[in-house]
Amino acid sequence: MALPHVPGVLSRAQVALTAGSIAAVQLPSGEIPWYAGGHTDPWDHVQGAMALSAAGLVDDAARAYAWSRSTQRDDGSWPIRFDDEAVTDSHTDSNFCAYLATGTWHHWLVTGDRSFVDQMWPVVERGLDAALTMQRPDGAVVWASGDGGPVDDALVTGNASIHLSLRCGVALAELVGTERPDWELAGSRLRHALDEHPELFVAKPHSMDWYYPVLGGAMPRAAAEARIDDRWDEFVVDGVGCRCVTPNNWVTGAETCELVLALDALGRTDDAVRLLASMQHLRELDGSYWTGLVFDDDVRWPVERTTWTAATVVLAADALSRTTPGSGLFRGTGLPLLRDWKVDAPCTL
């Protein structure tokens, strides 16, 4: 299997080393913690699994997805946090429940393993259904629920990610020979909320809320271009990367690489390659990546090398190099848009 690479930025050997740094942290159960001795969350775990698939470590990726199957609760959800393979936060995050659909679709694209899809489909279906129990009448999905019931707040980043997962879920449903028109409607209502009603979401100063709606290519092109241009100077620091949050002088590797994926979805390849190159100061000799840098002080913070940062580097390299059949995932290649507002849908706006 060919390995992703970006000439002048990352070689195939460097990408292999980065994927190896993720596999080195993976536990025998298949679980992928944030770093050795760190905790695990189900979303970043799937991000790590996707990078393993993209880098040819298919068996390690399959073990990661087996862990997701084994830890799903009866209601289709996952706990927010695991430490040493024990649940340490039992609350439910809607985005965490949905993201397995994205990972499963990606693994199918990379491997063509239909038996894997058949194994994962019931888990994906329960996960997306669990996420959609938290969708409000206005189309937005609240971010979490717990002992006291659902939290009312809806977050832009989480909802944009759920929209991509619903698109992957609809594609998987077609693959296994079924239909989920309720997912199509839920995704359409969610996209309408994202694109037309920003007041429905909690305003946050994080760069993710800026670029995440562009990931996957579902936002209309002109609106996506304008969105990126509008806050580019606010978040992008030339030669350093993308700020995690404004106005802090702190860039983070994962956010930079997710922005790379958003730019790739827009066809802005030169900007994307420059950004990927700009964050390589976070790379260590073993291929792992520090989470971020306070650039005014030249201080790495937090002092940790995270698997999800390394994973997003691998996925960005694959997207830019068009290496694997899964490289178009964040461009939305082959996925239904789920953005056309259904006029007969219930709406309380």
From TrEMBL:
It comes from Aeromicrobium fastidiosum. It comes from the Bacteria. InterPro entries: 6-hairpin_glycosidase_sf (IPR008928), 6hp_glycosidase-like_sf (IPR012341). One of its GO terms (biological process) is carbohydrate metabolic process. This is Prenyltransferase.
